[in-house]
Specification:
This protein is of the alpha/beta class. It contains eight helices and ten strands.
């Protein structure tokens, strides 16, 4: 029997995917003594290039900590992280800041748009900070893919939540980073706006060739991803490629594999 695919229109590659980011023996511990918390416990993970990966797990499973370590926002207690072939532990604080600016994009639940700038200026901010010129072809492609051309002159307070998040996605992908991390990007949105934003994240992968890694606790959001990494108690329980609904639910529950 053919398994029902989980989520809209799965993406298939013509060959094996390259790795956008990887972790080896990743551990992150907070506190000491009886107050010690082991957020990550020896995570080994390869995130494929040019695909949409969702990281899922219960509260406290380590999914946000994993994203922060992969993105260079937090330093692992043990282990290594590489992004675009660069070992993050080899970079000092200044070099790491520059690397994040040039090679990593971020989309957050709270949008993080600057209120004094209009949508166009917010989108171009990473290029301005890096002193890079604007590729007008890339800008036009991103703006049209995100469907926000008629909102470029508007400031954040003049935009709906969904429109603000689409501007935030455009800002994250404009510089063609190696990878974009999205942390609960639909957490502040209603169901209609959530579906819209997730669809645009998926379009950034399909049409812009972007690699996206999204932390989420929502099954509906994971439905838009190509791959799903399931964490439990700081370890990777499953790394699923285009899972069916039953397979993903079973992995989240910690049940035996559904074949």
């Amino acid at each position: 029997m053919t398994q029902t695919t989980f989520g809209p229109t799965p993406h298939h590659d013509s060959g094996p995917a390259e790795t956008a980011a990887s972790a080896r023996g990743l551990c992150r511990t907070y506190g000491r003594g009886d107050a010690t918390v082991h957020a990550l416990r020896g995570v080994d993970l390869d995130l494929p290039d040019g695909r949409f990966t969702a990281i899922m797990g219960a509260s406290g499973s380590g999914k946000s900590t994993l994203m922060h370590c992969l993105a260079g926002l937090d330093t692992p207690t043990e282990g290594r992280v590489s992004v675009g072939g660069v070992e993050l532990h080899s970079l000092d604080d200044t070099a790491l800041t520059v690397f994040r600016r040039d090679h990593i994009g971020f989309v957050f639940q709270s949008y993080n748009l600057l209120p004094m700038l209009d949508a166009r200026q917010n989108i171009l901010l990473p290029l301005d900070l890096a002193g890079r010129s604007v590729d007008t072809g890339r800008f036009d492609l991103v703006v049209d893919t995100m469907g926000i051309r008629d909102r470029l002159g508007h400031r954040p307070h003049q935009l709906s939540g969904g429109q603000q998040q689409r501007v935030a996605i455009a800002r994250a992908v404009i510089a063609q980073p190696d990878i974009v991390f999205a942390d609960e990007p639909t957490g502040n949105l209603d169901s209609e706006a959530s579906a819209e934003v997730l669809g645009f994240l998926r379009r950034s992968v399909r049409e812009l060739g972007q690699t996206v890694v999204m932390v989420t606790h929502e099954l509906d959001a994971a439905a838009y991803a190509d791959d799903v990494v399931v964490l439990a108690d700081g370890v990777v329980r499953e790394h699923l490629v285009e899972p069916g609904t039953d397979r993903l639910v079973a992995a989240l529950r910690g049940e035996a594999a559904v074949r």
